[in-house]
Amino acid sequence: MKGAAARADIVFAAPPLTFNRRAALTYTGIADKLFAQLEDNGALTGRPIGRNGERVYLREQLDEVTIKLFRTTATDIDDEFEGIGRG
Question: Are 35 and 24 in contact (CB under 8 A)?
């Protein structure tokens, strides 16, 4: 077909909403031992809803926990400007 427009497929690369334990470890980069500690203290709560009752972890919770781990040493820029402009 001469002059026909070229067709391009669009691919969206979005992470899944849930992960099994192995994939959650890979996604977060958290060590297996720390992951177990986070489960023990209730910071991570998987549900047995995967294949054959496999425990599954919500991506949103994995993101929150990982961010909190890094916030212990990082400064939030909003905290730096808190109170400015208040008399």
Answer: yes
pLDDT along the chain (87 residues), means of 10: 68 87 96 96 94 95 93 60 59
Task: Report the pLDDT value the prediction gives residue 8, as an integer from 0 to 100.
Answer: 80
Q: How deeply is 2 buried, as exposed, middle or buried, from its count of CB atoms within 10 A (0-12, 13-18, 19+)? A: exposed
Give the per-residue pLDDT at 55: 95
Identify whether the C-beta of residue 46 lies closer than 8 Å to the C-beta of residue 55: yes
What is the identity of the amino acid at 62?
L
HEC assignment per residue over 17-46: CEEEHHHHHHHHCCCHHHHHHHHHCCCCCC
User: Helix, strand, coil proportions of the chain in percent (round to 5)?
Assistant: 45, 10, 50
